[in-house]
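Chapter review: from sequence to fold.
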Amino acid sequence: MKKYFRELSVAATLAILLLALAIFAPPFFQPQPLLSLVTREAPTLVVACGMALVIICRQIDISVGSMFAMCSVCAGLFAAMHWPLALVAAASVLIGAMFGAFNGALVAGLGLPSIVVTLATMVTWREGLRWLRQGVWVDLPNGVQWFGLPQMAGQWTLAVFALAILIFLALAMKYLSAGRFIYAVGSDAEAARLAGIRPRLTTFLVFVFLGALVGFAATMNMAQSPQVDPNSGTGLELKVIAAVVVGGVAISGGRGNLWGVFAGLLLLACISPAVTYLHIEAFWGKAMQGAIILLAVVADGLRGRKIFNHG
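The token string follows.
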């Protein structure tokens, strides 16, 4: 129980918020608006899962928003060329993996700080896309939105995709050797090397995998609208990093799990609509989100100091 105190605390806070909404704002739980909220956050959950792996590996990637926009536009252009949707998704995943490989090569191969590398690529990809598209949206042909399904069926499909990825990665991080390698490298790269793990390769592959997840999330984003906005993904990096940190993943690496990330994302995602339903000024939603993130960072710092002092 103590091991998962942070994750349980986030889940309890979310439960209290939902209970308050059930009592004071029952319309929040109307099926269609609630499903729309889940659908809107589904791509974010996929990216947050990848970001969690990168942060557990003691790295960070703040270029995910720009990668998301690039992959969304590419997926939209492929769909506009009447490619099969499965091929569109595969191409978007491949493009995202290539972006991730570029970041990973600079971080793992050259030993450059990930914050500096991904800051540079964040600006480069975003400005490059702005120059290429000039703000022009990509119009999608019929049959692309919601994967050609009725809206509700398409929304459920996106939600199921996101949850399937979450469950698979949560189990993989716990039971597969690849997951243990990521934890080991994030805890102590040198000790991991002495144990026979290749920290640089692990770091490189984690960035590639994050890029691939961003590409898939971009396809999920494309399917929600008849057009693709080239400015999509703005602020995504802050949103997913906040969800990861609030969910109990240590920013210093080596600790955390994806169930906590899921709870953290749900908590942050519910706050903005909650203040609307509760008739509270909108700025209080941002203030509450900021306070939650700050408390999470402070708790992580205190936990790290306690571990250091006892060590």
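Two observations follow directly from the output. The chain has twelve helices and two strands. The mean pLDDT is 92.
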